[in-house]
Amino acid sequence: MVQDKNTDAVRINARKTDAFDIFNFQHYIGPNPYLNTGALVFDFALTEPWRSLALEDYIEVIGDRYPQLKNETYDSHAQLFARIVSQVNKLDMDLHLDRWSIQPNGRYTRIAVQSLHADTTRSVVYFVWDWFEAITRDDDIEFEEELRGLQRRFRVSAYGGPTIYALLRTAHKKGIPTFHIWEERLTQYGYGKKQIRGVATTFDCDSHLDSDFTTRKDDCKEFLKILGFPVPKGDIVFSEKEALKVAKEIGYPVAVKPVVGHKGIGVTADVRDEDDLEAAYWRAVKAIPENEPIRIIVEKSIRGKDYRLLCVNGRFVAATERRPASIVGDGYSTIDELIEKENRKPARLDTPTSPMSKIQRDEAMELYLEEQGLSLDSVIDTDKTVYLRKVANLSAGGISIDATRNVHPDNIVLAQDIAQHFRLVCLGIDVIAENLAQSWKESDFAILEINAAPGILMHLNPAVGESVDVPAYILETFFNTNEDARIPILSFNQISVKELQETIDHILLQNPNWTIGAVCRGGVFINRSEKFLNQNYNSNVYTLLRNPKLDLIIAEYHHDILEKEGMFYDRSNLVVLNNPTEIEMMLMRDVLENSTVVIRKGDNISIHRQGLIEEYTLGEDEPLTRVYLKEISTIF
Where in the chain is the domain with CATH 3.40.50? Predict the structure, then answer.
């Protein structure tokens, strides 16, 4: 008799008709037994072999969305599933998540996929599962809508901001160790005393006083005036009546903006009469944070193009022209329909790596259209361009155009002269000019404001023109090479408290001014001082590596810790393996170039160093400490 049902079916999370099941999720923040990077690990199984389709059937459908995958070879459903999860995990945002592995284990396969944000990666896995089941049933799935949801989920994570992710990806490419400090909501680049901390383009070495000064647009404007730089005439007002008085004194057109603000919110340019001024004034008031007093800048509106000049560490690195959002008529569509069509373009996906945001509809847009005798229902002639805003606000759909190579030397000197007066790593200078290729001394040119935490996406991924690798300029300010971001790390698969203290004493004897962090299952130490031992082992390693005084770390990673938590850091300068298990051998996998690995098996010792292997046998009663203390002396 032939059974039509497999009584040994794997069915843990699977629904009654599912062909596949996924279960046993484990997220590792760093290297683990399955990948040498942060990963989401889970088990994959066929519930009953007769339910699934042939591999070719899945590849055919998936290949319509990802054509490049059709040319690859797959040995099993599990391998295909892992490959698709890895692909979807990039979220069409070029995320640097391309590592994956599979380990067959009887009735199921363990899959590991590189992960940055556990919640997003887990959602990707479930989405791919739904996709496979839909293909099995010959159903459709709302792929693009689901993908947008995954993009939004990543974007609201600690890693999803465009500037933060750009820096994170560049650090990964350069081999600079990076992790998020959840308590402070900061990103840490580098370990111990080599670290720098920051959020977006603001870092802990920046002067908070200088940063605060740039937000006081009135004082900052006066300072620039003292330096002899061109700033628009104007004044700060505290009421609508004062705004009308100042505008009359300096003459229309004027620009109106809140003293405290960002991203162009509440800014109105080219205000031409009292009625416009009234609306612009209250728009600026509305943009002021609740805890701030009403202070509005009314200044002469300068004709020209809107530019951002960017300096990193006092040096000019990039310039971008910013144009307001616009649409081009086709002779039959309304402005509202043209906006909708424009927003569907791939370049306006509105993800952390999109060159343009979606065009936002709001009161300011409708008022500006009204000034032009138009509304959202107006039909625009073929090839006619209509600008939708006075202000080139990129977050509302404006366009960025790289202008770095066209900047006149005098304008570069101006930007650098300004930047030299601020202890800030990154400084954005907003100017208005007819043409940046002309000197500010010989043309209409005005400095609008200074930004202490400038965004970098407009330079890294402009809508038009070449990319400027601003993240590289920023990180190279702190780290010439990845070694500049690392302190020495000594990893052990097993070490006692007594041996740990002996090792600390040996290092301090050679480097008496060092601060050494050490952790084993028996305790946590800073030099000889014992500290609190957290039950979560990697929390101890985390607190040591975020210590800004630390010169070196010693860490024990036993196989049960590696299996349960993985490692918090990557790469070691010295690895000592005392009769290691198969899992503990992963410590040898994650070593730096020119690192040393000491392996003991019984009384046999092998030392791996710079491609050479030295082997010998321990003498009678000779301790392993004698071997590795000698090797420690060679790595500093």
Answer: 487-633
Q: What one-letter code names the amino acid at 294?
A: I
Give the CATH number of domain 487-633; options: 1.10.3470, 3.30.70, 2.40.170, 3.40.50: 3.40.50
Q: Among positive and negative, which fits the CA dihedral 628, 629, 634, 636?
A: positive
Describe the chain by its helix, strand, coil percentages, rounded to 5. 35, 25, 40
DSSP letter string, 498-528? HHHHHHHHHHHHH-TT--EEEEETTEEEETT
Collect all residues with Cβ–Cβ distance below 8 Å to 292 and sequence separation of at least 6: 260
What pLDDT, on a 0 to 100 scale, did the predictor assign at position 262? 61
pLDDT value, residue 236: 87
User: Among residues of the chain, what percentage have pLDDT more than 90?
Assistant: 76
Question: Can you say whether residue 383 is alpha, beta or left, with left for phi > 0 and alpha for psi between -120 and 50 degrees?
Answer: left
DSSP letter string over 151-190? HHHHHTSTT-SHHHHHHHHHHHHHT--EEEETTTTEEEES
Q: Which helix (H) or strand (E) holds 133?
A: helix 118-137
Beta strands 202-203 and 234-237: pairing type?
unpaired
* DSSP-assigned states of every residue in 293-327: ---EEEEEPPPSEEEEEEEETTEEEEEEEEE--EE
Topology given in CATH for the domain delimited by 233-300: Dna Ligase; domain 1 (3.30.1490)
Token readout for 18 is 């599912």
Alpha helices in 216-287 (DSSP H): 217-226, 240-250, 274-286
Predicted TM-score (pTM) of the model is 0.88
Q: What is the largest CA-CA distance in the chain?
A: 100
> What are the pLDDT digits (tens) for 548-606?
999 999 999 999 999 999 999 999 999 999 999 999 999 998 888 889 999 999 999 99
Which value, to the nearest 10 degrees, does the dihedral of the CA atoms of residues 70, 73, 78, 81 take? -20
CA dist 135 and 87 (Å) reads: 17
Instruction: Answer whether 258's CB lies under 8 Å from 266's CB.
Output: yes
Give the separation between CA 459 and CA 468, rounded to whole angstroms: 6
φ/ψ of residue 64, rounded to 5: -65, -30
**Distances in whole angstroms, Cα of residue 14 to Cα of each of 45, 187, 598:** 10, 38, 46
Judge if the upstream peptide bond of residue 253 is cis by omega within 30 degrees of 0: yes
494: tokens are 């097993």
Residue ranges, CATH 3.30.1490.20, the chain: 233-300
Q: Which helix (H) or strand (E) holds 563?
A: helix 559-565
Q: At what angle do helices 208-215 and 217-226 cross, to 10 degrees?
A: 100
Residues 393 and 375: their CA atoms lie apart, in Å, by 20
Q: CATH 3.30.470.20 in the chain, residues?
A: 305-478
Rg value, the chain, Cα: 30
Task: Specify the CATH architecture of the domain 305-478.
Answer: 2-Layer Sandwich (3.30)
Whether 464 and 321 have beta carbons less than 8 Å apart is answered as: no
- Answer whether 444's CB lies under 8 Å from 304's CB: yes
Averaged confidence pLDDT in the chain: 92
> Is the pLDDT assigned to residue 4 strictly greater than 70?
no
